[in-house]
Design brief:
ten-stranded mixed sheet; 40% helix
Length: 273
């Protein structure tokens, strides 16, 4: 009888002990849980096309920016390059977070936005003599203005489009946009640039860096003029459909605020913008 009692006691003691984790075992379990990868969230990005209409890969400097936000926020992105209108439609449907979008009255009804990631100057670009002296929105009156398809350049732009000037939307190919301007199928092209502050700097950037990077014989050696001052100012953001990805937008806001405060975010943004 005593032997039977001892056997039962050992059995119950083993059963209890098997349910109790040692500190080391608990730490191992915690480490295992931490290593489970987060579910990626679709990040919807505007595609860029080459001179043949083929989609280009994500710009390396943009990739550095996205990696920074992933690292600092703990959010894992599944990058998707898309025509800009399609990217916006997917975001409206709650399929992901869109990056690089600016505000407009219509969009404010559809999306909730992060705080601004970057502020941009919007320059008016022209081709051919005589060189115009655009200095304000009013100087665009009656002109045909080319923008990227599906793009807005901020609230002031939205108030002026098709009121002060007429808007034409262009495809995602940057070389095609410059050639359209060169061939007089539009009067002006709007182009955002953040880092440069003077018209002469922007013209030099177009002439010495951007245009040569297209490797397009039709554009080689061509000179484009830039407005004396930016005609608009815009901000770009992360955004998601109302009621979707709210916690993620809060995390991204924290990253933006922290990155501005410690100076890291402007350094990451500088090469791309």
């Amino acid at each position: 009888m005593l032997l039977r009692f001892q056997q039962l006691a050992c059995f119950f003691l083993f059963a209890v002990m098997s349910q109790v984790s040692t500190p080391a075992h608990a730490a191992h379990n915690a480490d295992t849980r931490q290593k489970v990868p987060a579910t990626p969230i679709k990040l919807l990005l505007q595609e860029s096309l080459d001179i043949h209409g083929r989609q280009l890969p994500i710009d390396r400097d943009l990739e550095v920016i996205l990696q920074y936000f992933e690292r600092e926020s703990g959010i894992q992105f599944e990058r998707q390059l898309l025509p800009w209108n399609r990217a916006q439609l997917m975001a409206q449907n709650g399929e992901g977070i869109i990056f690089g979008i600016s505000k407009s009255p219509e969009r404010l009804l559809l999306y909730h936005y992060s705080i601004p990631v970057v502020a941009e100057k919007i320059w008016a670009i022209t081709y051919g003599d005589p060189r115009p002296n655009f200095q304000s929105v009013e100087d665009l009156r009656g002109k045909t203005v080319s923008i990227g398809r599906g793009f807005s350049h901020g609230m002031d732009f939205e108030k002026a489009k098709n009121v002060i000037f007429n808007v034409q939307e262009d495809p995602a190919s940057s070389p095609a946009r410059f050639k359209k301007l060169m061939n007089k199928r539009s009067d002006i092209m709007l182009w955002p640039i953040r880092q440069l502050h003077r018209s002469q700097q922007v013209e030099a950037y177009l002439r010495d860096q951007l245009i040569p990077s297209f490797n397009d014989p039709e554009l080689t050696g061509k000179t484009f003029y830039v407005s004396a001052r930016p005609v608009f100012y815009d901000t770009t953001h992360f955004a998601a459909a109302n009621g979707k990805f709210e916690a993620e937008i809060v995390k991204l806001n924290s990253v933006i605020r922290k990155g501005i405060a410690n100076g890291k975010l402007p350094k990451v943004l500088a090469r791309f913008y």
